[in-house]
Backbone:
């Protein structure tokens, strides 16, 4: 298939395939969720933790495949158990790279064992590792709808306390906020988000939706709600463009998504942000006016 | 005679400690503390490292239970999450790559304890600006937290603590890492909040001298004991000798600065 210059006709053609429809639906929902939770992952410096979830989820998915259980169930169980464990260690412990790395390596090994025991098709393995968004079924889209709604509602409820705890843990604790409960809620939200993002990007590329858009958005706005919106838009556009590019080329969707977000990150980090920062420096001639408006 | 802030009249009591003792794991850090601080008083908490100054704050915040005696805050037992207390923790820092504007942190001092998503709240915003103004940090509102200097950050933390309109401010070594000019600036801001808002401020410090013009009371923790009173009562050779149990000499220069001689750590230096 090749793209014509008529964009409407191209999009109609893409939409006429059911696997593309499901891919776009699941991808859209996943991108929204990943964009929102990804902002907090970056703000709380939990990128490595989030990555560990996906690896633990991998062991869970491989185990599920071995027993004929849907891989998503295995992913959810694995990543949530991992999240719970890390949350119970406390936030300071959650940043101990070494311990997380040790658990991560063991999880990968465990996943490998389950896969070697599995005698079915290797495609299942491949899709867990690198994502298979074009293989998403109607049922999986429905599951993603439910998960997206749950994650957005959950994040909405803990939004302000979580932001407070992320920026100023000591004062939030002194103000009586339930830090352990907040930590567990956050880890569960990330674990579920990671499990669904894995469907799109796979275990190994989950950073491209969970971390890169959030990290890029931090340079675009200093207001958390705006930055979160930017993070969602980046994840959304990257997913849509990835699906479209993959439709017309023989290359995988995940590759396009990773390449797009990476290119945007580089541009924002090294071209856009330095230019903007220069303008906002207190020492510069143009002092930013104090903005009192909403 | 030490120069002192005017005595606060017609005060209502904010904090009372009676025969209070505190410690961890059954081992007391200090005991037998008796004190009473009224509304609008500025109190310095002094003492060597490890004497239990921060522990006193943990008791007041309800993060730790007293080992003995009684502690009353606003007439009742300390409880965690008391909205009438503003707090600046010790060695408080923000990661340098935090790309969030200062206004947001100050707002969270008020709204961070509320559940639910509410990005545009004009009440929060106005309160945050008022607190920023009180902390002399209005010009920092839209700067990013990670890019602030030590002095600027302390002003933002002060605004964050003031935004909920507390009756009691707990400041744990807000002056460490500040140069003399920033130190004086911040003290004036705290003193201003104390005088204009009637806030009671407890400030842990290592150097007493910049504080002296503002202080109503001093609480000195050392050697497992606590001495409380006006600066001229506590900062004398007799009083500190009694506290430390060894000969301590308090010297005063013509400007009213004090130097404490005879203990390992000097909490005041004649400059």
Residues:
């Amino acid at each position: 298939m090749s793209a014509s210059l008529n964009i409407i006709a191209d999009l109609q053609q893409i939409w006429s395939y059911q696997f593309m429809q499901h891919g776009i639906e699941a991808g859209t929902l996943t991108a929204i969720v990943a964009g929102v939770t990804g902002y907090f992952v970056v703000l709380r410096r939990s990128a490595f933790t989030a990555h560990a979830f996906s690896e633990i989820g991998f062991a869970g998915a491989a185990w599920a495949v071995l027993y004929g259980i849907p891989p998503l169930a295995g992913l959810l169980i694995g990543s949530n158990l991992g999240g719970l464990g890390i949350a119970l260690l406390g936030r300071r412990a959650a940043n101990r790279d070494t311990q997380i790395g040790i658990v991560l390596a063991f999880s990968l090994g465990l996943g490998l064992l389950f896969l070697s025991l599995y005698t079915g098709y290797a495609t299942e393995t491949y899709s867990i590792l690198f994502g298979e968004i074009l293989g998403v079924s109607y049922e999986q889209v429905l599951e993603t709808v439910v998960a997206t709604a749950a994650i957005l509602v959950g994040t909405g409820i803990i939004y302000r306390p979580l932001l407070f705890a992320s920026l100023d843990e000591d004062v939030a604790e002194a103000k009586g906020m339930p830090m352990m409960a907040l930590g567990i809620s956050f880890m569960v939200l990330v674990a579920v988000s990671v499990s669904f993002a894995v469907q799109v990007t796979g275990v190994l590329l989950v950073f491209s939706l969970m971390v890169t858009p959030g990290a890029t958005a931090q340079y675009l706005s200093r207001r958390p709600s705006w930055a979160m919106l930017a993070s969602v838009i980046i994840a959304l556009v990257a997913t849509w463009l990835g699906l479209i590019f993959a439709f017309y080329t023989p290359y995988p969707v995940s590759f396009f998504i990773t390449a797009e977000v990476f290119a945007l990150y580089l541009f924002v980090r090294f071209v856009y942000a330095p230019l903007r920062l220069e303008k906002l420096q207190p020492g510069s001639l143009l002092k930013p006016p104090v903005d009192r408006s909403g | 005679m030490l120069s002192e802030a005017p005595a606060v009249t017609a005060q209502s009591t904010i904090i009372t400690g009676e025969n209070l003792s505190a410690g961890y794991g059954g081992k007391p850090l200090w005991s037998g503390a008796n004190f009473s601080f009224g509304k609008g008083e500025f109190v310095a908490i002094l003492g060597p490292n490890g004497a239990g100054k921060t522990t006193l704050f943990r008791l007041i915040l309800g993060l730790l239970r007293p080992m003995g005696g009684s502690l009353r805050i606003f007439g009742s037992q300390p409880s965690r999450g008391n909205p009438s207390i503003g707090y600046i923790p010790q060695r408080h820092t923000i990661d340098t790559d935090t790309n969030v504007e200062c206004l947001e942190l100050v707002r969270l001092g008020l709204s961070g304890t509320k559940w639910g998503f509410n990005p545009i709240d004009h009440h929060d915003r106005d309160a945050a600006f008022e607190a920023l103004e009180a902390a002399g940090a209005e010009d920092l509102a839209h700067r990013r937290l990670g890019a602030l200097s030590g002095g600027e950050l302390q002003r933002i933390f002060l605004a964050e603590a003031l935004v909920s309109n507390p009756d009691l401010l707990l400041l744990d070594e807000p002056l460490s890492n500040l140069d003399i000019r920033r130190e004086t600036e911040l003290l004036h801001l705290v003193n201003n909040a104390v005088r204009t808002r009637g806030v009671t401020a407890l400030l842990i410090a290592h150097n007493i001298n910049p504080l002296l013009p503002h202080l109503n009371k001093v609480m000195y923790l050392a050697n497992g004991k606590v001495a409380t009173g006006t600066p001229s009562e506590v900062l004398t050779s007799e009083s500190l000798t009694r506290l430390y149990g060894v000969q301590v000499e308090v010297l005063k220069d013509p400007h009213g600065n004090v130097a404490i001689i005879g203990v390992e750590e000097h909490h005041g230096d004649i400059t």
Summary: The CA atoms of residues 15 and 170 of chain A lie 50 Å apart.
